[in-house]
């Protein structure tokens, strides 16, 4: 049985993951509206990934005999001034999610919930990857702004991203 504090914290994280998906959909729409189909693809896949994260948390709570309590999802930002600004917002958001995951791990540790600590390790590792991936895009985009066609090449590269659902828990 999942501990009550951990259950409550994971329900909050489910909401955060759903908001993340919604935010990335807004970013995808912005990129599509601004002629960057590759970046629109990248952020739409990011939205799908966040939904799978929410589902992993959802299934974990049920598997542990917990109770799901869903909350409203806030409206995300929908307007940015440049592609780099969007990706800087992605990085800031991923850093916030990292903080939320770390806080969730702290709750599992304080509640001595070993199963949840093991479950959360995947998310801790995932956040390291997320932040590094986005920082790489920002670094490339800043360099690309110095040459004509640079953003076009990055957009083309981002368009190659394919959705890979998170592996199922064994």
UniProtKB/TrEMBL annotation:
Q: What is its main location?
A: cytoplasm
Which residue intervals define the domain Ferritin-like diiron in the entry?
A: 1-145
The UniProt entry, under InterPro entries, shows: Ferritin (IPR001519), Ferritin-like (IPR012347), Ferritin-like_diiron (IPR009040), Ferritin-like_SF (IPR009078), Ferritin_DPS_dom (IPR008331), Ferritin_prok (IPR041719)
GO BP annotations, alphabetical order? intracellular iron ion homeostasis; iron ion transport
A single GO CC term, please? cytosol
Record field: catalytic activity: 4 Fe(2+) + O2 + 6 H2O = 4 iron(III) oxide-hydroxide + 12 H(+)
Q: Give the enzyme class.
A: oxidoreductase
Binding locations of Fe cation: 17, 50, 53, 94, 127
Q: Where does this one sit in the cell?
A: Cytoplasm
Pfam families the UniProt entry points to: Ferritin
One GO molecular function term of this record is: ferrous iron binding
Q: Which UniProt keywords apply?
A: Cytoplasm, Iron, Iron storage, Metal-binding, Oxidoreductase
Q: Which PROSITE patterns match?
A: FERRITIN_LIKE
The UniProt similarity line reads: Belongs to the ferritin family. Prokaryotic subfamily.
Identify this protein by name: Ferritin
